[in-house]
TrEMBL record, chain A:
This is Sarcosine oxidase subunit delta. It comes from the Bacteria. InterPro entries: SoxD, SoxD_sf. Pfam families: SoxD. The lineage of its organism: Bacteria, Bacillati, Actinomycetota, Actinomycetes, Kitasatosporales. It comes from Streptomyces smyrnaeus.
TrEMBL record, chain B:
It holds the Pfam family SoxG. SUPFAM superfamilies: Folate-binding domain. This is Sarcosine oxidase subunit gamma family protein. InterPro entries: SoxG (IPR007375), SoxG_het (IPR006280), TrmE/GcvT-like (IPR027266). It comes from the Bacteria.
Length: 102, 210
């Protein structure tokens, strides 16, 4: 069970949340000029990193607000949670290593 | 509960848990590990959305006679009203006052500013779980930390009890909790709580092997 620190409600169990996939996917600047392949890439193609990944989560069982989470895809450790109007926090790689559960 | 008198819609309405009233009364036990379950139907509930700290929020606070709580878990109260935090710009006002009158007053306070005031009294019903074993019953299915060091009287939070989303409000340290499930989930939640309550209230019986 993950504990996710909602920026408004504090740490809550994973069961209260819904994951909304990768965060920071920019909407096309000129959507009218995209061909089908480019639309397909925007809608369906996502990064699949080993390590830190930024995700959107929604606290559906609580305040019902969307926010972003930095999560390690190897250890599942939640490294940071931040509001959608805040910039992605810088996570130092060595701190991730030190803080990762065994 | 007294039957409503007179004519009109009030005589026709049925609370979501009316069919379980006798069952809940029969399952309630007193004593050192007692716990009781009752329904408080037809409370007025008004959902308020407004930017916190704005002029409209100040006017609404003035109309309610109490500030809007700004942190998750906090509640404020004034006379017949209690206000609980639902989100950074959303509150639930519980009141003994008539729903239409309160909604009109708060909508007038909001004026033309961005926000909304909606009477949601029919959305949820209110269950009260009270007694020394009330926290033990809830802890069987509530992911929130209900220990007095982190959740006490006057605090309320949206969470789940079993699989049912509720607003959980602790009203007394005894302890006593009020659970606000959506009306269509109330039957399931009441039966879930009745099942969770079954083991309590039997401290008078001699322990096995004595």
């Amino acid at each position: 069970m993950l504990q996710i620190p909602c920026p408004w409600c504090g740490p809550r169990d994973e069961t209260e949340f819904h994951c909304g996939g990768q965060a920071h996917v920019p909407y096309p600047a000129a959507p009218g000029e995209l061909n089908d392949h480019e639309w397909g890439e925007y809608v369906f193609y996502r990064d699949n990193p080993k390590g830190t990944r930024a995700e959107r989560w929604m606290h559906s069982g609580g305040c019902r607000r969307w926010f972003n989470v930095l999560r390690d895809t190897v250890s599942y450790q939640v490294l940071a949670a931040y509001r959608t109007d805040e910039p992605r926090p810088a996570i130092h790689p060595s701190r991730e290593e030190a803080g990762a559960p065994r | 509960m007294a039957e409503p008198t007179g004519t009109g819609p009030l005589t026709l309405r049925r609370s979501p848990l009316e069919h379980l009233k006798d069952t809940m009364r029969a399952a309630s036990v007193s004593g050192a590990s007692g716990v009781s379950l009752t329904e408080w139907p037809f409370l007025t509930m008004v959902d308020v959305r407004v930017a916190p700290g704005s002029a409209a929020a100040v006017r609404i606070e003035h109309a309610l006679g109490t500030p809007l709580p700004l942190r998750c878990g906090d509640t404020t109260a004034s006379g017949p009203h209690a206000v609980m935090w639902l989100g950074p710009d959303e509150w639930l006002v519980l009141s003994q006052e008539d729903g239409a009158e309160l909604t009109d007053r708060l909508r007038a306070a909001l004026g033309e500013d961005a926000g909304s005031v909606v009477d949601v009294s029919a959305n949820r019903t209110t269950l009260e779980l009270r007694g020394p074993a009330a926290r033990d019953v809830l802890e069987k299915g509530c992911p929130l930390d209900l220990h007095p060091r982190s959740f006490g009287p006057g605090q309320a939070a949206s969470t789940t009890v079993g699989p049912v989303p509720v607003v959980l409000w602790q009203v007394a340290g005894a302890p006593a909790y009020r659970l606000l499930p959506r009306a269509s989930f109330a039957d399931y939640l009441a039966r879930w709580l009745l099942d969770a309550m079954r083991e309590y209230g039997h401290e008078a019986e001699a322990p096995l092997g004595s």
